[in-house]
Inverse folding.
């Protein structure tokens, strides 16, 4: 009948408009439009299906929004951490330039590089910084050995070992120092 065709056309129009609003994430508007249609021409399986589609689409949209927020928060935290690391590396570099290798507490290059490594264990710049600090002490120990200043050499080696006990040069120079100390002791004993 003509009346039924009219209702079918109105229903089709309502469904198209509801789907369009839903696709544009205008869920409240889609629900309100659908509710008005139901109030005028009555509920139908098509309208119930459209209502279910609105709910499903909105739930998916909310989930996507939550995921996007989590990703944005994660990216923000990563940026903040990277900025913190860069600030710390700059402070460590300044401390190195000012020869604050292991002192004062809280403002020395070694402590700052170690802080960076707690934030980013693979940070090459911090690892290289620690290696450079160790090298400074090793170089000082070599110089002291060359000048036969065994006490100073021992102090410098102790400092190098405190910075990086795994550095093989610490063991090598320690062995050289022990040999020199032994020879000096023997020489004094023989005099």
């Amino acid at each position: 009948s003509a009346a039924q065709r009219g209702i079918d056309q109105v229903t089709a129009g309502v469904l198209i408009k509801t789907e369009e609003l839903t696709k544009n994430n205008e869920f409240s508007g889609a629900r309100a439009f659908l509710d008005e249609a139901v109030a005028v021409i009555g509920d139908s399986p098509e309208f119930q299906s459209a209502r279910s589609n609105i709910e499903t689409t909105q739930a998916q949209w909310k989930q996507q929004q939550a995921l996007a927020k989590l990703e944005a928060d994660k990216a923000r935290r990563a940026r903040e951490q990277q900025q913190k690391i860069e600030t710390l590396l700059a402070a460590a570099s300044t401390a190195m330039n000012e020869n604050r290798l292991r002192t004062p507490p809280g403002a020395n290059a070694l402590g700052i590089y170690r802080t960076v490594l707690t934030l980013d264990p693979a940070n090459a710049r911090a690892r290289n910084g620690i290696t450079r600090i160790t090298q400074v002490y090793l170089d000082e120990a070599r110089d002291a050995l060359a000048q036969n200043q065994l006490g100073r050499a021992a102090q410098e080696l102790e400092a190098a070992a405190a910075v990086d006990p795994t550095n093989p040069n610490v063991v090598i120079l320690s062995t050289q120092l022990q040999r020199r100390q032994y020879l000096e002791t023997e020489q004094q004993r023989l005099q």
User: Anything to note?
Assistant: The mean pLDDT is 95.
